[in-house]
Amino acid sequence: xxxxxxIQTQIREREHLVAALRDLHxxxxxxxxxxxxxxxxxxxxxxxxxxxxxYDIGFRKKTEQYEMVADWWGVEGNSPxxxxxxxxxVNRQYAYNLIHDQAQEQNLIVEEEEELANGxxxxxxxxxx
Length: 129
Known about the structure:
Layout: E1 5-8, H1 14-23, E2 28-38, E3 41-50, E4 56-62, E5 65-70, H2 72-78, H3 83-105, E6 108-115, E7 121-127
Antiparallel strand pairs: 1-5, 2-3, 3-4, 4-5, 6-7
Helix pairs in contact: 1-3
């Protein structure tokens, strides 16, 4: 029996996902149909994060969004990575990168950034004037 858990994300763009993983200093592979290792089997994904053990975390495109797939029992039992923390880190960094890229595309200026105690970031944008 497999322990794989699939988590639907709001991540839509591979380039921003990869940038987020890079910013967070995770080692990963990109490709098509890569193996995501887990107990008693494998899943397939386009981006595979190495956890430092024999279990991986994968991201694969499902319709418009990416789905995260991992054997979290194996990941959490054999590496320092914890599911909730990992998901939050990746989502925050993805959103941060996406906002900055969209601001640049729309010719907006980042006026101020403040990191809150809970880890969220408040970004104030303005039009170039």
